[in-house]
């Protein structure tokens, strides 16, 4: 099962949202033989999700944390950090996409291969919102943590 995350850059989860995400992720891990988590590495929402997943990995070492990079450039700082932080790094088939569209095309690819998506969407613009809209169109099961109150 591939589980992905999209959220606005400056997202802060409430304690209730944080606990909900922790419990839901652990239940998904328990219910599925193999869970692979795709993260893009941008903003506080991705950082929060990564921290939760790293804690869960201590109890469930079979889960896999994967950074999906929009760029292959050697000087891309996030790529260097990702190689040390994640179990794997994947570059989706977007090599012919102009650089200014790389992140949005990467996000569309993530949606297309995901079995489940967690989002934190509080407004209807931006890259996270576009990915969320794409997930809804593709009928990928999605939970918006913003709605957990």
Can you tell me about this structure?
The protein is α/β, with parallel strands linked by helices. The chain has helices at residues 15-31, 43-59, 77-85, 102-113, 127-137; strands spanning 2-7, 36-39, 64-68, 88-90, 116-120, 142-144. Helix 1 packs across helix 2 (43-59) and helix 4 (102-113) runs parallel beside helix 5.
Would you summarize the structure shown here?
With 149 residues, this protein is of the alpha/beta class.
Task: List the topology elements.
Layout: E1 2-7, H1 15-31, E2 36-39, H2 43-59, E3 64-68, H3 77-85, E4 88-90, H4 102-113, E5 116-120, H5 127-137, E6 142-144
Helix pairs in contact: 1-2, 4-5
Which terms summarize this structure?
single chain; 149 residues; alpha/beta; Rossmann fold; six-stranded parallel β-sheet; 5 helices; 17% strand
The average pLDDT is: 94
Beta strand %: 15-25%
- Tell me the strand order in the biggest sheet: 4-3-2-1-5-6
Count of alpha and pi helical runs = 5
**Distance separating the two termini:** 27 Å
**Secondary-structure arrangement, i.e. CATH architecture:** 3-Layer(aba) Sandwich
Helix percentage range:
40-55%
* Rough outline: globular
In total, how many beta strands?
A: 6
Using only C-alpha atoms, the radius of gyration works out to 15 Å
Series of secondary-structure elements, N-terminal to C-terminal: EHEHEHEHEHE
**The CATH top-level class label:** Alpha Beta
The figure for the number of domains is 1
Poorly predicted parts: none
């Amino acid at each position: 099962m591939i589980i992905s995350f999209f959220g606005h850059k400056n997202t802060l989860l409430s304690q209730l949202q944080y606990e909900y995400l922790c419990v839901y992720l652990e239940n998904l891990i328990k219910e599925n033989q193999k869970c692979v988590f795709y993260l893009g590495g941008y903003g506080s929402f991705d950082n929060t999700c990564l921290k939760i997943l790293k804690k869960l990995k201590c109890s469930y070492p079979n889960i896999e944390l994967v950074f999906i990079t929009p760029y292959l450039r050697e000087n891309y700082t996030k790529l260097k950090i990702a190689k040390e932080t994640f179990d794997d790094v994947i570059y989706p088939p977007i090599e012919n996409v102009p650089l200014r569209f790389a992140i949005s095309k990467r996000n569309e690819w993530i949606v297309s291969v995901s079995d489940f998506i967690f989002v934190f969407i509080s407004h209807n613009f931006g890259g996270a919102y576009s990915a969320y809209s794409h997930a809804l169109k593709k009928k990928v099961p999605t939970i918006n943590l913003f709605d957990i109150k």
